[in-house]
Amino acid sequence: MTTPLLLAVVQDATPALVPADTAWMLVSTALVLLMTPALAFFYGGLVRSKNSLNTMMMSFVALGAVGILWALVAYSLSFSEGSALLGGLTNAFLAGVGTEPKGTIPHILFMAYQGTFAIITAALISGAIVERMRFGPYIAFIVLWTLLVYAPVAHWVWGGGFLGKLGVLDFAGGTVVHINAGVSALVAALVLGTRKDYHRQAILPHNVPFVLLGAGLLWFGWFGFNGGSALAANGSAATAFTNTFLAPMATLVVWALLDAFRNGHVTAVGGATGIVVGLVAITPAAGFVSPVGALAIGAIATFPSYFMILLRARTRVDDSLDVFAGHGIGGITGALLTGVFAEKAWGGTDGLLAGNPEQLGLQAIGVVSSLIYAGVATLVILKVLGAVTVLRAEPRAEGLGMDVTQHGEEAYTSGEGSILVLPAESDAPSPAPTLAPAAR
Amino acid sequence: MTTPLLLAVVQDATPALVPADTAWMLVSTALVLLMTPALAFFYGGLVRSKNSLNTMMMSFVALGAVGILWALVAYSLSFSEGSALLGGLTNAFLAGVGTEPKGTIPHILFMAYQGTFAIITAALISGAIVERMRFGPYIAFIVLWTLLVYAPVAHWVWGGGFLGKLGVLDFAGGTVVHINAGVSALVAALVLGTRKDYHRQAILPHNVPFVLLGAGLLWFGWFGFNGGSALAANGSAATAFTNTFLAPMATLVVWALLDAFRNGHVTAVGGATGIVVGLVAITPAAGFVSPVGALAIGAIATFPSYFMILLRARTRVDDSLDVFAGHGIGGITGALLTGVFAEKAWGGTDGLLAGNPEQLGLQAIGVVSSLIYAGVATLVILKVLGAVTVLRAEPRAEGLGMDVTQHGEEAYTSGEGSILVLPAESDAPSPAPTLAPAAR
Amino acid sequence: MTTPLLLAVVQDATPALVPADTAWMLVSTALVLLMTPALAFFYGGLVRSKNSLNTMMMSFVALGAVGILWALVAYSLSFSEGSALLGGLTNAFLAGVGTEPKGTIPHILFMAYQGTFAIITAALISGAIVERMRFGPYIAFIVLWTLLVYAPVAHWVWGGGFLGKLGVLDFAGGTVVHINAGVSALVAALVLGTRKDYHRQAILPHNVPFVLLGAGLLWFGWFGFNGGSALAANGSAATAFTNTFLAPMATLVVWALLDAFRNGHVTAVGGATGIVVGLVAITPAAGFVSPVGALAIGAIATFPSYFMILLRARTRVDDSLDVFAGHGIGGITGALLTGVFAEKAWGGTDGLLAGNPEQLGLQAIGVVSSLIYAGVATLVILKVLGAVTVLRAEPRAEGLGMDVTQHGEEAYTSGEGSILVLPAESDAPSPAPTLAPAAR
Amino acid sequence: MKLIIAVIRPDKLNDVLEALYHAEVRGLTVSRVMGHGGETERVETYRGTTVKMGLQEKVRLEIGVSEPFVDITVKAILGAARTGDVGDGKVFVVDVEQVHRIRTGERDEAAVTPATPAGV
Amino acid sequence: MKLIIAVIRPDKLNDVLEALYHAEVRGLTVSRVMGHGGETERVETYRGTTVKMGLQEKVRLEIGVSEPFVDITVKAILGAARTGDVGDGKVFVVDVEQVHRIRTGERDEAAVTPATPAGV
Amino acid sequence: MKLIIAVIRPDKLNDVLEALYHAEVRGLTVSRVMGHGGETERVETYRGTTVKMGLQEKVRLEIGVSEPFVDITVKAILGAARTGDVGDGKVFVVDVEQVHRIRTGERDEAAVTPATPAGV
Ligand SMILES: Nc1ncnc2c1ncn2[C@@H]1O[C@H](COP(=O)(O)OP(=O)(O)O)[C@@H](O)[C@H]1O
Ligand SMILES: Nc1ncnc2c1ncn2[C@@H]1O[C@H](COP(=O)(O)OP(=O)(O)O)[C@@H](O)[C@H]1O
Ligand SMILES: Nc1ncnc2c1ncn2[C@@H]1O[C@H](COP(=O)(O)OP(=O)(O)O)[C@@H](O)[C@H]1O
Questions:
Q1: What ipTM describes this predicted complex?
Q2: Ligand nearest to the CA of B436
Q3: Global pTM?
Q4: In angstroms, what separates the C-alpha of C111 from chain E's closest C-alpha?
Q5: Using an 8 Å Cβ cutoff, are B417 and D54 in contact?
Q6: Chains in touch with C (≥3 Cβ pairs < 8 A)
Q7: Model confidence over B6-27: pLDDT tens digits?
């Protein structure tokens, strides 16, 4: 993302707002914000009905908790002047963040746009620990994680930190968002342990149409995620946009073929997963590769993620919605392939195929540093949290379902046989005498 | 909304189309239009399955009935030259509404943008009378209401009417949309009376995921609602946008905390409601306050709406989906807090905290005048309608469900045991002999 | 679409990127892409639960198969220099398609925008053959159809082909998209034959809220479809946008009235259908007629489609989701009415009412040529496909449902009584001994 | 012991549950069913398709009781479920040979508590 | 009186209802159930998870009839529900001690109308 | 022949099915039901509305068996469905006068295969 930004700044010595860029970034910010509710449906449809609200709320609550944290502190730690490892506190509490230009758009809008990335990154992790993690500790986790993992890594790559300086290419967050979330999800799944029914009973998606709805809205929002990362309504945005249009198509088709060969059926859940994996893989490359390169990246990225999902399901690692296979592996593949397919002509630095093998090395450095840092930091955060509170719901609560036990709600109710407790008498005995002796 | 508009006009003496502003307003209009289907899902998920289609159709039909009325008459009554109380008919039937600039965007687009506000405002009211009001009279009601309540109040605030002239601040419709709809909903609930099962049986949301989907899409659309009210792709839009991004986050978090304290659970329905209340509260302030002010408004606005919902549920007032608590109270809180937090530096007039207490007084005038006018006018409209037709479905129809009785449809059917009436023979005896003697 | 494009080219002899136009077209492309998932829900809600995933996947798979085909070949065949009947291969494999301006936007973005049209057009056809066509042959069909039907007809109208040269008006694809898909759907329905339960059992929509969700998102996306066809953020876009805003309102209202008169109920499925028919009818006219003209077109277009649906249902033609009545008839009505209501003053050529009856004749030529060509070509494609493979699922598979038989999935599962086959042992005997002797 | 099977209107379920509670009938099993009887049929239209809905939504109760409870239970249901309109439903009483309480393995009378009405 | 319980294929329900109508059997209660018998199992795959679906969708009919109707009803069901393939289902006949019509309080024979076939 | 009706916990269904399989009980019908017994009630809150959920999700099994299978089947269920906590459910055994296999028209013993346990 730095590249286009720098360009913009270079272009006009005295930066000024460009209305067209502002218009596009207003839209892009809205599009990326929509991705978090979209993720709620993608994840929510994949879990059992009794856990669907809890799963969706894990995404929605990130909109609140992570969003506020971002505005108050994390934005500053990510993007304000600081060291090679972490930003400063110049912009803490949005100090000095107003409508003055940052590049060619209002600074405040830049802050909001970046905030939507922090929110969805945290929410992505939830897929690994659904159906068993208590809601309170989950919120504490994503808050700490955003502060201690997201903010630094974002600074490394986009905020003037060492990875950006090194010349690591990450157009829209393959490393910052996907590898980061993916490896953290893997660690979280290992720390939390398997669901009590894992490998003992079939755990099936309760609503596949919701999964397709989520995938469709994610794709739609991703145009803001990648296209908006040009931070302007220019050729770079068009390239990033079109590559975001093409790559998932290739993944969708290759995924369908693999499904067909493997079990004779093209599956809907597979199709939705393929779209997301393609979007993940093109994210770091979007503004740096040719459209044909995007098709290639989409097609190639299918294989590692597809087979990692099969492999993972055979292990005792209950990364329940395969966040690591999808975002971790997808992000790594994308980051490395960026080093292969990137072209100066298309806005990137030349990569392997353009005769610059070093770039591939740089990409590897980016991958490894985020893998190690995010993995270790997540482990520490969860261990500390686990020491002060209980991370997991009791087996009985897990059996009853997280919706009832964590939220006191059910996703789909008919109200049959439910006895109204008149608010007036919520403490006094209920008028419609309840059925259970307990109520006496 | 006037402020930025005037500004724009001032900026260039000879107004001309600004493509970037046009691009942003095209998008904003689409975003606000989407809010009405979004509302259909927010409301539709909260009712019982047997009333879900009827509830959704109450929003969808507004897209038709109110939209056409707007184009033919209501737009002119709201925005064309007229008295301090009502606009004229200069633009009736879209006379003189073409692609010439209105401010910096095509006049016709300005008309469409404002139309989306009129549509959703009418649809908002439906939440108070769902599960019992007959569909025909409902349509008649929203048509009359748009003509007699929405148009005048819109004129007062935005069309050059007395509230705007007085200097009452309402950036995107806290008064025109939310207080207006909220108080009218309260009156409508009182006139219609309680549902037959109200306080006798538990009436539970049939599909909470739909409620979350609605909330997510509403937030997404609201960026056009508030951000678009700058009528340009400028700093004011960025401010309004970012405040619309931050305020609901604060409400969501405070709401969750209140839920947790009150009944030990953070609820999904509560989260969705909190998001909407935060969006309502920031609406009048969006382009006038600082981002930190927006966080404050979002946080503070939680309390009155939250406790009004609890209080209302103990009364005999069956404002079924708490439109008054959410939009009425939320809108009032927002309108008043605008007078507290507004800052010249951020595009508003200085408010209380900036040392201008009068502004708070002005805001109060805006609140009171719309409260009284909308309340009384709604009462009159419903009494008159009630005199010429029956507003409520029969208890038996209410028991069967409004979907079957008002629309001859069910939301979810398996078709089991349903006997096809071949169109050819719809009058002749049906071929598959029906089960009931009646059919003989 | 040509008109505005030419204009744009004329405006600046040396074409250059216009950031505002780029911003609007980036958004429009995203909006039109969203229409295909939207269609998946519109169609998916109308079928029986056991066929819902298959129906949705028929739309989603078009995103992959047709999208890639478009980028590789079909774009070039449609839009690159060629004969009056077909484009050339200059841009095959995206050769020469980069960020250079095409009109005022990046060429690559223009390609992507047009691609979203090709995708949804193919997906539209699926509505006619749902609940019975095998998935593999379906994919083969839409690929061949895009190549042999969509590409040529798109070239005729927009790519410099004979219909465009003749002066046939089609602003956003009434002919290319809707008549094309509609007549092909009719032919496909006839070739495939009726569903086994057709006219023997009631086949009811399993989820009407999904139908409403689809209709809402389609309308939202259609603003990009029609508004974006101006290829710029200008007055023409505003006109097209506003007409896309008004026409469906008229259709929705008239449809509701017809429903009310015919069976005493305004229906939700009818409302959703009306919205789509209105959008179809205004598509060719969007940038050429006045807003009042748009209301007229929306209102008038209701009748032919409404009664065609009733008529069709009495016949043995199982165009299951009435694609022909909605898109074919709706498109024809729209195309002809464009010749009636078009006005130079609003960006079109003068039509009948403006004293130029020839235009109506030209429109008729456009209608007839696409009707005949698409009809015959579709017949040939399906007959050839039918000769090399079986197009239809067996009656038994049809009874079980296409989700289970084509995709090995169910849309809604509780997992009850399902026995997990541990991946590790997928070949070895399963640990949880299965219930059926077969498993021994 | 007997198994009492009742088919009632969904909107009468809460009243029946309450009546059973007062009759000190503790255990029961409920399910949503569709029923056909003398009710007149609903007509629904979906685009070109018009259908007669031959089945109405009902709720089915299944209650295992000891002899002394049979009349009490039937009376409670008849009293609470009646509206007087066609469609109120039916009550069937079937003989049961064994009852087992899964939790304890208790059998027959012991498995359906209380075995005798409080009054007795 | 007897209670006839039948488990049939969902796609045979309409045929069975029609047959019962012709047999002048008016009242019945229907519910969706899942069944296991000799049917071969479906395999489904969701990402890494492969499952055997051990249960098939079926429809359960519950019909209270007076003695003279028992054979007529059973015959009607057997005739209309048969496809000849594994999975057609079963019919059970259980004795009923009491029947009550909730609406009227009528008992036994009177509660299941008609008490005797038109023919008889 | 007998009809065995069991109400169990949903999460015990797979265990019970497995136990029945080992007991060589092949045919059965399952349905989702709601039950009320000694279980303590769940409280749920939706905005201003607080409700006690009086009914718990359960699964109902209906198994037609020949005499020799009655005890085997009941034992299998009791063994596999028990957790020891309130809410485990009940098993009812009802006498059946006729059983028909729709596919073949076979009656009674022949309709419920196997008629006698493999062991015997
Ligand atoms: N013979 C029967 N067997 C089983 N269920 C029946 C029978 N008769 C009626 N029912 C059930 O009772 C419900 C109401 O019965 P109906 O005859 O319409 O009411 P009423 O008893 O008031 O005439 C029906 O919908 C059906 O579910
Ligand atoms: N013994 C039984 N008890 C209860 N239901 C049974 C029994 N046997 C079969 N069924 C029901 O009948 C359905 C079909 O039975 P199945 O044995 O597969 O067919 P068939 O009788 O043609 O062999 C099963 O799915 C199940 O619902
Ligand atoms: N008398 C009864 N008749 C029918 N079903 C019953 C009866 N008693 C209990 N049940 C069913 O069994 C389930 C568990 O019963 P409960 O009494 O709570 O457990 P326990 O038998 O362990 O005390 C209940 O939810 C209900 O579905």
A1: 0.94
A2: 1
A3: 0.95
A4: 33
A5: yes
A6: A, B, D, E, F
A7: 344 344 456 799 999 999 999 9
